[in-house]
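Sample pair:
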Amino acid sequence: MEFNPRAAELTTLLESRITHFYTNFQVDEIGRVVSVGDGIARVYGLNEIQAGEMVEFASGVKGIALNLENENVGIVVFGSDTAIKEGDLVKRTGSIVDVPAGKAMLGRVVDALGVPIDGRGALSDHERRRVEVKAPGIIERKSVHEPMQTGLKAVDSLVPIGRGQRELIIGDRQTGKTAIAIDTILNQKQMNSRATSESDTLYCVYVAIGQKRSTVAQLVQILSEANALEYSILVAATASDPAPLQFLAPYSGCAMGEYFRDNGMHALIIYDDLSKQAVAYRQMSLLLRRPPGREAFPGDVFYLHSRLLERAAKRSDQTGAGSLTALPVIETQAGDVSAYIPTNVISITDGQICSETELFYRGIRPAINVGLSVSRVGSAAQLKAMKQVRGSSKLELAQYREVAALAQFGSDLDAATQALLNRGARLTEVPKQPQYVPLPIEKQIIVIYAAVNGFCDRMPLDKISQYEKTIPNSVKPELLQSILEKGGLNNERKMELDAFLKESALPFIS
C-alpha cells in the first residue's frame, strides 16, 4: 500500500526533522605537510592563514607561520620535528602567539612559550598577552628621570641608568657581562625594601638565550639564596632548545615585563644575550630560503632587535607612569664592537657599558672600560649628590690612562704628573667590587667622595678596599639619610663628611 501524506502532515514531518537537526558544527581550515626537516615544515592548503599565526600539528606540536608563499606556507616548529611526517594534518589556531603574564609569574622559571619548567606545578591566576605588540608612541612616553640603581660603583657613578632606558652591556665572552646584570637584580632587593608604595617596586625579568642548562640552574640558585627570586621571572631558551624558541624568548620575556609597565609599575628586563637570538634568527631565515645579507644575516635583522628594544619605555603620567628598563647583552669577538650585530644594537640603545678582557685579567672587576662606556640619558636620572661627587672623575681617569701609557717611557716626571698618576691609580682601585655584593647608593657616594677629594691619596693601594669596607659602616645614619635626599650635599654636610673621612683615613695611611 502506497503512503501518500497530505501537505500538512508533510510540513509537520519536515519541521520536526529540521528542529532536531544538529547545527552546532565547527569549520577548521587544515593543510597537509609537504616536507619537514631542520625545524621547518612546508605546508600546503592553509590559504587564509595570517603571518605570525600559531598552527598545531597532528602530533600536538605547535608552530608559527613565517613565510607565506604562493604554493605553500613555511612554518617554524616550536619543539622537535621528529614526530611530524609528510602528509600529516596541520590545523590553524586562529591566534597569534601569546604568553602568560602577571604577578603569578614571579619566582617562576618558564620556557619561551610561558610553560613552567621549574617543577613547581601550573601557574595560578594570570592573564595572557601577545608576544608581538606595537611599542608605545611618542605621546605615551615621558623623559627618563628616575634612577635605576645597579649597586655597582663604576656604573652608578660614571654610566648611570634611568628607569625606562635601554643600556647595552657589550664585551667578549668571560668578561663579567652577566655578573653586571645579576648584580643589578640582586641590588633591587634592598631598593624594594625601601619602597613606600607598589609603584616604587622594581620587578625583574631575566631572559636566558642559548645558555647551558647548568648556567640557568646556577643563576636560579644564586637568586633564591639572596631572596631575589620573589620579585623575578626567569625565561629560559637554552642551547638545547630549537632555534625558534631562542628567537621567541626575548619577545615572551618582554610581554611579561610589559604587564608591569602598563599597570603603573616598574620592571627591568635583561636579554642575555641578543647575539645568540640573532644567530637563531639567521638559522631560521636561511632554512626558510630568505635571501642572506651581510654576515649571512637576513635583511630585517636590525628590525628584529629594534622592535624588541623600542618596547622598553618610561610611560607618561596620563598612561600610568610605569616603566620598562632594558639591559640587552651582546657578545663580541676579540673586542670587535664594529661588527654587524654590535653596531646595530649600539645604534638602537641609549648607551653602552663596555667590558674588556684586558681589564678583567688585570683584576679590575667589573671590567668596565670607562672611556668607551656612555649613558646618553641616564645623567638626567642620577641622584644630585652622586652628580656632585663624581665631578670630573671620568675626565681624570681618561687623563690618567693617557699619562700612564707615556710614563712607561720616561722616569723624570714633574710633581703635577706624579699627582695625576697617584690620584688615577686610586680612582681605578675604588670602582673594584666583588661579585654579587651590590653597594647601596648612599655608601657608594661616600666611597667615591673620599677618592675624588684626595682622602685616599696617601694610602697604599692594597689598603683601599679595606678602607672602603670600614667607612660606610661607621658613618652616622643621619648623614647617610641626608645624602639620599634630592637636595644633594650642601656645605654643612660636606664639612661633616670631610671631618669624618679625614679621621677614618688615619689608620690606613702608612
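The chain has a mean pLDDT of 91.
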